[in-house]
Design goal:
Order of helices and strands: EEHEHH
Strand order of the largest sheet: 1-2-3
Distance between the termini: 27 Å
Strand content: 15-25%
Structural class: alpha+beta
Shape: flat
Largest sheet: 3 strands, mixed
Length: 76
């Protein structure tokens, strides 16, 4: 069953990277992320291009936190 295309899939996590052209689509993105999470059980992570480019350390911490949560869910 096709649910959605995601930007990047990591173990237990899927990521969405929002660029400028997607600005103003938060409802669409949230709905799609909810569908993917419900269908797969993966944790969603959403990042903006500005976050990745201008705040890489914050982005890394958020990404590591998501991966840690996914690992804890898998081992439970």
């Amino acid at each position: 069953m096709f649910v959605a295309r995601v930007d990047l899939k990591l173990p237990g996590v899927f990521l969405e990277l929002d660029g400028r052209r997607y600005h103003g689509q938060p409802v669409y993105d949230a709905t799609r992320q909810t569908r993917v999470a419900a269908a797969t059980g993966w944790l969603p992570g959403q990042f903006t291009w500005s976050e990745v480019l201008y705040n890489p350390n914050v982005t890394k911490r958020r990404l590591h936190a998501l991966l840690d949560m996914a690992a804890q869910r898998k081992s439970a």
